[in-house]
Amino acid sequence: MPTSAARRTLHAPELPPSPFPYHPGSLLSINDLSLDALNHVLRRATELTNEDPLARARILPKRRVALLFYESSTRTRTSFELAAKALGCDTTLVSNLSSSIEKGESLKDTGLTIRALGAEAIILRHNASGAPWWLEACTHLPVLNAGDGMHEHPTQGLLDLRTILAHLRPGIAEVGPDTLAGVTVSITGDILHSRVARSNMLLLPRLGARVLLCGPKELLPDLAANVVPGVAIERNFESALKQSQVVMMLRIQAERLAGLQLDLEQYKAAYQLTGDRLRTLAPQAIVMHPGPIIRGLELTAGVADGPQSKILEQVANGVAIRMAVVERALTTSRTGDRA
Ligand code: CP
Which of 147, 246, 259, 306, CA to CA, is 20 to 30 A from 88? Predict the structure, then answer.
């Protein structure tokens, strides 16, 4: 365990609230959540999961939630939809592939149209970093960021935290600045293009965790380590594994490489999570991945299906967390009061 002085240097300070007058039910960045708000979301995720399904469906009856997706998604889209429906909401999906977005309609006009149709909250996935802020500013509705470009994926950070707590801090009542003291989480792969890495880098050090970023320079520039206290670069995968209680692997995002050529055989030799590496270097660690996984590239099929893998638990935790953030979006007034 680090000394208390050393631990203090790992903690990112509590961030001040956003100076912009966004809807307090929105979740645009993981930094929007104070420690109190974070604990509220984690607590409600558990309470709503344990609630009787019929009672749960009466929490937000017939409230209207729109899912606006400009990028493909399996986990996030499905779990947001199931979460909203579990609370009794009506949901509608607007996808860039089957809507007037294909005809050139802007994000602003699409958002205003969805609002005019009665939507009370919008869940947005967009390929442009910052798009949720623009949608919020245009519609004044609560907006939940379901992944914006290479920027953030706050609900993924929350479901990852719920998964980590379940294994490393089971039964904990609430989180605080020391909850994950002594825990090292390595994140390996395409850090540069990863909104998941960014949300986790912003969240986990606030709870005392040390985050090690691992990958080649093309996917992890040196600059990345200086952004947040408690985050460091470890280029050697074996060394990162030896230090980790949580091993988080990332996909190489081919859709964002923009001409960058990677030698995949070299990449696998240096960074693939194999059964041998896991058994030898991190036999007690949990293995996580936000998905979609590419078997045989960033990890082997044996690791993905093995006993240390918590990948499908992460998926299930997505529904719990998204019920809590949808409820928060629809029950928080503009003044910040909760109904
Ligand atoms: N983790 C994640 O965002 O997965 P999807 O792209 O399938 O939603």
Answer: 147
Tell whether ligand 1 has an atom less than 6 A from the beta carbon of residue 76: yes
**Residue 290 in contact with ligand 1 by CB distance below 6 A:** yes
- Distances 49 to 5, 86, 168, 267 between C-alpha atoms, Å: 38, 10, 20, 40
**If you measure from the C-alpha of residue 74 to the centroid of ligand 1, how many angstroms do you get, rounded to a whole number?**
6
The secondary structure of residue 334, as a DSSP letter, is: T
Domains contained in the chain, CATH given: 18-152+317-331 (3.40.50.1370), 154-314 (3.40.50.1370)
Give the model confidence (pLDDT) of 192-240 as tens digits.
999 999 999 999 999 999 999 999 998 998 875 566 789 999 999 999 9
Cα 316 to ligand 1 centre (Å): 12
Structure tokens at 237: 């995968």
Ligand 1 centroid–CA 26 distance in Å is: 20
**Residue of 78, 71, 79, 187 lying closest to 129 (CA atoms):** 71
Find the 75 Cα to ligand 1 centroid distance in Å.
5
91-115 confidence digits (pLDDT tens): 999 999 989 999 999 999 999 999 9
Q: Is 194 in the pocket of ligand 1 (CB under 6 A)?
A: no
- The number of beta carbons lying within 10 Å of the beta carbon of residue 313 is 16
